[in-house]
């Protein structure tokens, strides 16, 4: 039970697409992540994917359209929906997924779970 | 699957302690709420309680201490832990709870679920 300052957590690392777990909630990881450039197309079959932009601008490509998020905007990609997050400039995100979800949709290529 | 602008949703209402549901995520309600003054002491026995301050300052009283949150800071009250949120000035929060959770911990006194 600690207060989590998201900016302080984001200042602890520089890597892109390497989420850091900052808390837990009902079996989910609360994560901050820095995004720049395109990620990989992937699907989470057993969890929705929560994105809240803290700074920058995020595009989430879906197979039939794309959505653009600015700071203070959130989007939930439902379980089973293929998506590809992308950002032209470095963008900071609060990400929530069920604990143990591989960020790439594939345990073989996923970033390790790192708690900060 | 819509982009949710939290400030736009908050502009739709003025009531305090009356959460508005702005989205859904893995069986949870994503809510915005305006807080001013003290709420009631209550406990959620079957869900953690996620608070992220968007503007203002929130104090969450626990029975053994209090925590203070500024914008960009989050706190999770674990299930079963009695708490009382309070704010001196109007404060805006992103709140996440399992769908159907009474905001007061008691269905008889809870605010109605309102989707905006």
Describe the structure.
The structure is a homodimer of 116-residue chains. Chain A is 4% helix and 50% strand. Chain A is mainly beta. The first copy, chain A, has a single domain (6-115), classed as Jelly Rolls. In chain A, strands 2, 3, 4, 5, 6, 7, 8 and 9 form an eight-stranded mixed β-sheet that branches. In chain A, a hairpin with a 3-residue loop joins β5 and β6 (66-69). The longest helix of chain A has 5 residues, at 6-10. Chain A is globular, with a radius of gyration of 13 Å. β1 (4-5) of chain A pairs antiparallel with β7 (73-77) of chain B.
The top-level CATH class of chain A is Mainly Beta
Oligomer class: homodimer
Count structural domains of chain A. Answer: 1
List how many beta strands of chain A DSSP finds: 9
- CATH fold descriptor of chain A: Jelly Rolls
Rg of chain A (C-alpha, Å): 13 Å
Share in β-strands of chain A: over 45%
CATH architecture of chain A: Sandwich
Give the arrangement of secondary structure elements.
Two copies of one chain form a homodimer.
Chain A: E1 4-5, H1 6-10, E2 20-25, E3 28-38, E4 49-55, E5 58-62, E6 66-69, E7 73-77, E8 83-98, E9 114-115
Parallel strand pairs in A: 2-9
Antiparallel strand pairs in A: 2-3, 3-8, 4-7, 4-8, 5-6, 5-8
List keywords for this structure.
homodimer; 116 residues; Jelly Rolls; 1 helix; 9 strands; 50% strand
Short description:
The structure is a homodimer of 116-residue chains. The first copy, chain A, has 116 residues and is mostly beta strands.
């Amino acid at each position: 039970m600690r207060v989590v300052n998201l900016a302080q957590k984001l200042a602890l690392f520089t890597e892109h697409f390497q989420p850091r777990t900052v808390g837990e909630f009902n079996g989910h990881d609360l994560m901050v992540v820095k995004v720049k450039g395109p990620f990989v197309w992937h699907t989470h079959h057993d969890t929705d994917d929560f994105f809240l932009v803290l700074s920058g601008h995020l595009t989430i490509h879906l197979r039939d359209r794309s959505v653009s998020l600015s700071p203070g905007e959130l989007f939930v990609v439902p379980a089973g929906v293929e998506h590809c997050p992308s950002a032209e400039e470095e963008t900071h995100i609060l990400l929530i997924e069920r604990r143990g979800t591989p960020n790439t949709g594939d345990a073989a290529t996923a970033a390790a779970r790192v708690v900060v």
